[in-house]
C-alpha cells in the first residue's frame, strides 16, 4: 500500500464539474478555458515549423528567440528589463512554473503564506516540498489583501509568500499600495515571492496590471509566472514562462530540467513569430471586458448579487440572501437541474469556508453566454 504524499487530495473540482457538465449536457462555465480557438495565423505558424522539421528537443530553458520575445514584451508593456538568456525560462504551463519556483526555495519546515481563496495547485506544491502552508483570508467582499493579517502571519520560519494578480477565482487586481506594503513587510527578511500572473493582460475598467517585478525590491525576490495559454486562447498547448533575476533563475532551472526538461519546440517558434505584432496581446483586455460586461448585464436579471470582476475571466456571484444550501451542493444541482456548470468558491479554501459564492467563467462565445444567462434567469431557488 502506498502511503500517499497528498492524502487529502482527490480529483480536482475542475475535472469533476467539467465531467458533470458533459454528462448533463450543461453549459460549462466552470473550468477556466476559452470557448473559442486561437488566431488562424497561429495555426499556420505551427504547421510551418512542424513541416520545416523543428520537431526535436528545444533548449532546456527555451528557444532563444522566444525568450527574447518574452523579454521584449515585458519591456514594452511594463518598462522592466529582463535578460532573455539568463532571466527568462520557458516551461510547460504556468502550473509547472509555480511548482518549480516553490521547489527552488522551500525546504522542510519552511512556512509559506497562501492568500485564500487560492488556486488549488499552490498548497500541494508546498506540502510536497515539506513546507507548511499558512493560510491568510482575503477581505470580503472585494477580496483585497488584509495586510495586518499577513504581517501577523509572518514568522522567523516564513520562507515564501504566494500571490495571484489578477486573482482567480475572485478577480481582484493588486494596487501599487499592495506592492509597496508587501515590499515593506519582507525587506528585512529572507522571504521570497511566487507571483501567479497568468491573467496579466485581462484587466477591466481602466485598471492596469502591476507585476510584482515592477517594484525594485520585489523584483529581486520574485518568481513571476505567466501563461500564453490564457493570453492567446491556447490552454491545451501548456506553454508558460517564469521571469526571475539570474540568481533565482539558476535555482529555478535546476528544478525545471528534471520536471519537463523542455517545452514543445514548434510551438515556441510559432509564438515567437506571432508575438512580433504587439497588438495581439495589448488589446486583450478590451476583448474580455466586452464579455464581462455582457455577462454582468445579464446577471442583473438574475437573483444573484455581484460586483463586476476587476480582472481575469471569472465572475463570482453571491446567493446567501436566497439560500443557505452549500455552494458545492448548489453548483451540482444547478448543473443537473438548470444546465449551467459553475465552480463553488469554497474549494479554494483549505477548510472549505463557504461564503455562498459561485464562480463563472465568461471566456466563451457570446451566444453561449447569452444562452447560459437565459437559463440562470429561470426560477431556481
Walk me through what this model shows.
With 381 residues, the chain is α/β, with parallel strands linked by helices. It has two domains: 13-31 and 283-376, Aspartate Aminotransferase, domain 1; 54-280, Type I PLP-dependent aspartate aminotransferase-like (Major domain) (Aspartate Aminotransferase, domain 2), CATH 3.40.640.10. Helices cover 39% and strands 14% of the residues. It is built from 15 helices and twelve strands. The chain has helices at residues 13-23, 40-51, 64-78, 94-105, 122-128, 147-153, 176-186, 216-219, 228-231, 246-256, 265-274, 279-282, 284-299, 327-338, 366-376; strands spanning 27-28, 88-91, 111-116, 132-137, 158-164, 192-196, 222-227, 240-243, 314-318, 340-341, 343-344, 357-361. Strands 2-8-7-6-5-3-4 form a seven-stranded mixed β-sheet, with helices on both faces. The protein has a three-stranded antiparallel β-sheet with strand order 9-12-11. α7 (176-186) links the parallel β5 (158-164) and β6. The longest helix is centred in the C-terminal third of the chain and has 16 residues, at 284-299. It is globular, with a radius of gyration of 20 Å.
Order of helices and strands: HEHHEHEHEHEHEHEHEHHHHEHEEEH
| Residue-averaged pLDDT | 96
What form results from the Cα inertia axes?
Answer: globular
CATH class of the largest domain: Alpha Beta
Q: Which CATH-level-2 architecture of the largest domain?
A: 3-Layer(aba) Sandwich
Q: What structural class should be given to the helix and strand makeup? A: alpha/beta
Strand elements, count: 12
- List unreliable stretches of 5+ residues: none
In whole angstroms, the N-to-C terminal distance is 45 Å
Count of alpha/pi helices: 15
Number of domains: 2
Amino acid at each position: 500500500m502506498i502511503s500517499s504524499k497528498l492524502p487529502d487530495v482527490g480529483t480536482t473540482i475542475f475535472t469533476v464539474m467539467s465531467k458533470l457538465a458533459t454528462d448533463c449536457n450543461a453549459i460549462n462555465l466552470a473550468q477556466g478555458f476559452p470557448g473559442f480557438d486561437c488566431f488562424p495565423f497561429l495555426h499556420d505558424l505551427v504547421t510551418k515549423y512542424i513541416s520545416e522539421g523543428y520537431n526535436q528537443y528545444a533548449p532546456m530553458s527555451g528557444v532563444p528567440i522566444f525568450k527574447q520575445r518574452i523579454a521584449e514584451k515585458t519591456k514594452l508593456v511594463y518598462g522592466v528589463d529582463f535578460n532573455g538568456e539568463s532571466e527568462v525560462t520557458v516551461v510547460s504551463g504556468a502550473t509547472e512554473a509555480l511548482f518549480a519556483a516553490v521547489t527552488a526555495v522551500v525546504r522542510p519546515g519552511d512556512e509559506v503564506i497562501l492568500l485564500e481563496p487560492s488556486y488549488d495547485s499552490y498548497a500541494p506544491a508546498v506540502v510536497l516540498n515539506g513546507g507548511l502552508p499558512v493560510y491568510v483570508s482575503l477581505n470580503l467582499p472585494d477580496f483585497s489583501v488584509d495586510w495586518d493579517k499577513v504581517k501577523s502571519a509572518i514568522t522567523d520560519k516564513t520562507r515564501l509568500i504566494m500571490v495571484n494578480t489578477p486573482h482567480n477565482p475572485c478577480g481582484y487586481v493588486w494596487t501599487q499600495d499592495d506592492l509597496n506594503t508587501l515590499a515593506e513587510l519582507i525587506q528585512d527578511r529572507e522571504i521570497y515571492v511566487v507571483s501567479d500572473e497568468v491573467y496579466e493582460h485581462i484587466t477591466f475598467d481602466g485598471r492596469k496590471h502591476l507585476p510584482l517585478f515592477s517594484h525594485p525590491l520585489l523584483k529581486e525576490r520574485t518568481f513571476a509566472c505567466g501563461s500564453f495559454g490564457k493570453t492567446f486562447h491556447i490552454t491545451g498547448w501548456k506553454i508558460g514562462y517564469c521571469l526571475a533575476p539570474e540568481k533565482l533563475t539558476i535555482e529555478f532551472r535546476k528544478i525545471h530540467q528534471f520536471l519537463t526538461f523542455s517545452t514543445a519546440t514548434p510551438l515556441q517558434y510559432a509564438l515567437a513569430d506571432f508575438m512580433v505584432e504587439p497588438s495581439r496581446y495589448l488589446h486583450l483586455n478590451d476583448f474580455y471586458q466586452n464579455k464581462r460586461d455582457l455577462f454582468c448585464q445579464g446577471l442583473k436579471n438574475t437573483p444573484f448579487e455581484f460586483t463586476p470582476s476587476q480582472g481575469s475571466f471569472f465572475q463570482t456571484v453571491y446567493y446567501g440572501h436566497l439560500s443557505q444550501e452549500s455552494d458545492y451542493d448548489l453548483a451540482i444541482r444547478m448543473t443537473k437541474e438548470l444546465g449551467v456548470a459553475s465552480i463553488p468558491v469554497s474549494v479554494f479554501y483549505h477548510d472549505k469556508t463557504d461564503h455562498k459564492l459561485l464562480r463563472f467563467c465568461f471566456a466563451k462565445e457570446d451566444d453561449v453566454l447569452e444562452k447560459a444567462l437565459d437559463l440562470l434567469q429561470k426560477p431556481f431557488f
